[in-house]
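Q: What would this chain look like folded?
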Amino acid sequence: MSEIKLTRLSHGGGCGCKIAPSVLQSILGDVKEKLPYPDLLVGSETSDDAAVYRLNDSQAIVATTDFFMPIVDDPFDFGRIAATNALSDIYAMGATPIMALAIVGMPVNSLPVEAIRAILDGGASVCKAAGIPLAGGHSIDSPEPIYGLVGLGVVHPDKLKKNSDAKAGDVLILGKGLGVGVLAQAMKKEVLTEAGYAQLIATTTQLNTVGSTLAGLSGVHALTDVTGFGLLGHLLEMCRGAQLTAEIDFDRIPVLSEALPLARQGYGPGAIDRNLASYGHEVDFAASLEPWQRRLLADAQTSGGLLAAVSPESADEVLACFHQAGFSQAEVIGSLRAGSPTVTVR
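A: My prediction, written as structure tokens:
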């Protein structure tokens, strides 16, 4: 098992596997139009994190799916990361997960059964930590290893947190440090230290359970999680949905300590360039920002942090919720105001 290199069996890894935002938009086309179902509270029209369907006045079902190729070589860790990432979309809606199904695609002729079992065990361990059953799933023989979950959750319709409900004057709070993609590429290049790998695993397997708590706070207007499109990409989705403009301060953005020196050296996944090519024209970077700083803001995060749009008077309470839940790097990184859907980075 120690000799298995999962990342060598696939052409990409983690949320860096995502199709670039501009390419995805051209593929989806009009699919993102609002569908004529009154109880479908959230569909694909605002690129939100999960679909939401109202069952009755007090319950709505939240459904999402997320899967990708290995971001690390260890099978058990890969399963944990993929499962944590998938359940994040449930928490990002302010919901509580209730059940999951496994999505499994494995090269059964080249990957030992023990490794495949370890991947599934890793996913199951995360579901156990989240307090939900891994109740089944579907598997195929695939040329590259793929693993993820279908996640199901519940939320009161009045407590649902969309990515499009931000308000002018809101402050922006980011729950986890950036740099997952940087660490992952450094690992592939065999320059990542043990401390760096430990930090990579710690952040990508930390469940965003605080989202369920934030659902009960009226001052939290919008939520999303930062994954494959990077901080800028997911912030732009929030801006487009709410028709607002964002201003963020680079110096206030939390960065994983082990990733910072690597980012300065230029490490980062190819997804960074794809992301910037897709939405870079919608971002106004301060002239003082160095190239590595701009790239870090587009770094593809796997199982990244929650991004919350919060009324200024609620900011301290929200930060306290993050910190009490173990998100020590959570920080106010900027604000939203009236204007066209763009982002300014100071």
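The radius of gyration is 19 Å.
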